[in-house]
Amino acid sequence: MRLWSLIEWLTADWKHLARFSVLALAISSCLWLIAVGGVLTVSWLAPGTDIKVEKSGAIILSTRFHKTTAVYLLTPHGAKAGPWVNTGIEIKRGQDVRITASGRVCLAMHHMVESGIKDVPPPLPWSGPSGLDPCSALPPTTPRDEELVRSKYLICNTADQGELIGVISAGEPPIKPDSVDVLEIGDYWDQPAKKSGTLWLTVNEIWLNKSLADAYAPKTPEEFEKNIVANSYWNVWYDDNAGAFLITVEL
Ligand SMILES: [Ca+2]
Question: Which CATH number fits the domain 49-250, given the four candidates 2.30.110.10, 3.80.30.20, 2.60.120.430, 1.25.40.20?
Answer without folding.
Answer: 2.60.120.430
